[in-house]
Structure to design on (455 residues):
């Protein structure tokens, strides 16, 4: 197929409908281009449980091998398991997944050796240019000394051992834990990681099924954790964990069946990682995490660094500052000891260690990390994003009690609240997040800003 990559190659990955937007021959070209851009002699490739994933991954491997690279196929894996392989083997890697998107989608998340991200500014633009050219004119013949080899390797046990070596779970009391894998890759990784823990594991939707027969594998959408919440209550469980389709994000439900803010998890893990590093270190957080996050970081001896929304920004700041940990509102959690990459599984193990190391229920444990009330992200369709942002700034601009910054969209901060409004890069949307010291203030600020956005 002659490729139209304008809708396929995103800021951080490749993602589109199979076979309408891309197919195995195109994936083969991506494999060849990936090797040319990274100048890799060897790479590692993994894939999720989507029906199209094995074929696309195999085609990518053929393209890479044809350019002279040795390919290690690790087969079914979570995205953070692919990052583990990239880090432990010190190889560039490619993960075939479309995360929580519907079954007809698939994609590629690519990284350099040591799980360093490949995005538009770090190689993805060059890869796109090559694939567009080759899909029209054919890939140029290269005559390496010999084609690369393609071999298989299982990394699941080593991945689990690495994570378990980063969290002290020796003093954990027995816990009853419900895990909703959403028919995604958590159903593959959780049984191995949890195998020797003092956990009564209650699995939900562990069967690998890329058609997602039970619910969308996106735990940040409240409708997708309803089953988990009900099961936690029915079982009298200590907590529930929900993973997204490629199991790199983890969402937590407490013993009351209430969803836990990812900001609270970020604060909890930050405190634990700071303690593990002698009470000092830098922690990265994006600008729409709760006020609680930088407060807890400072209280535990750390230095908070605020950044834009998006994993490429988090990873760049992690590397620049030598940060020990980073967290986002979207339930992505990044660890220095995991090659600055994100792993929801490691965050989940920290939650188990914190809860199991004391006797209080999870809701009580997390109260110290969840100090304010937040709106969550509210999306509004608008025709003129820049115009609406200017109108919002003008409406609040003459108030002495408000400060502004434009690190990512527009953030307005008062002593009792803050809000951020950001434009989507791919849709005609403005995204609003509000936090306040109490529910009444939150409601008032949220409604006032939404009126300005939607007028």
């Amino acid at each position: 197929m002659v490729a139209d990559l304008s809708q396929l190659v995103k800021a951080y990955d490749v993602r589109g409908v199979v076979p309408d937007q891309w197919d195995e021959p195109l994936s083969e070209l991506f494999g060849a281009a990936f090797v040319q851009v990274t100048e890799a002699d060897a790479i590692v490739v993994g894939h999720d449980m989507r029906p199209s994933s094995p074929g696309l991954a195999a085609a990518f491997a053929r393209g890479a091998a044809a350019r002279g690279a040795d390919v290690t196929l690790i087969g079914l894996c979570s995205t953070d398991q692919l990052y583990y392989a990239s880090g432990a083997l010190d190889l560039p890697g490619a993960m075939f997944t479309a995360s929580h998107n519907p079954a007809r989608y698939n994609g590629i998340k690519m990284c350099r050796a040591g799980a360093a991200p490949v995005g538009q500014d770090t190689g993805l633009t060059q890869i796109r240019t090559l694939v567009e050219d080759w899909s029209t004119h054919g890939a140029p013949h290269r005559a390496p000394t010999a084609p690369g080899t393609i071999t298989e390797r299982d990394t699941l046990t080593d991945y689990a051992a690495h994570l378990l070596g980063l969290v002290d779970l020796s003093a954990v009391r027995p816990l009853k834990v419900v895990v909703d894998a959403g028919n995604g890759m958590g159903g593959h990784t959780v049984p191995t990681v949890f195998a020797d823990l003092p956990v009564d594991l209650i699995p939900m939707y562990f069967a690998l099924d890329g058609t997602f027969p039970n619910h969308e594998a996106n735990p940040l959408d409240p409708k997708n954790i309803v089953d988990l919440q009900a099961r936690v209550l029915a079982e009298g469980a200590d907590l529930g964990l929900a993973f997204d389709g490629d199991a790199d994000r983890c969402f937590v439900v407490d013993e009351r069946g209430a969803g836990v803010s990812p900001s609270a998890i970020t604060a909890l893990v930050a405190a634990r990682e700071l303690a593990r590093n002698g009470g000092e270190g830098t922690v990265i957080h994006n600008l729409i995490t709760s006020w609680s996050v930088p407060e807890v970081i400072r209280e535990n001896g750390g230095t908070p660094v605020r950044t834009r929304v998006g994993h490429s920004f988090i990873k760049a700041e992690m590397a620049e500052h030598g940060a020990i940990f980073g967290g986002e509102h979207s339930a992505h959690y990044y660890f220095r000891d995991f090659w600055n990459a994100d792993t929801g599984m490691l965050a989940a193990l920290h939650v188990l260690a914190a809860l199991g190391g004391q006797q209080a229920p999870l809701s009580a444990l997390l109260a110290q990390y969840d100090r304010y009330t937040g709106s969550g992200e509210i999306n509004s369709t608008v025709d003129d994003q820049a115009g609406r942002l200017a109108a919002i700034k003008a409406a609040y601009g003459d108030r002495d009690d408000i400060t502004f910054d434009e690190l990512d969209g527009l953030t307005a901060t008062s002593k009792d609240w803050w809000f951020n409004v950001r434009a989507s890069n791919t849709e005609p949307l403005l995204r609003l997040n509000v936090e306040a010291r109490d529910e009444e203030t939150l409601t008032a600020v949220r409604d006032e800003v939404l009126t300005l956005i939607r007028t």
User: Anything to note?
Assistant: The chain has three domains: 14-154, 156-272+336-371, 373-454.
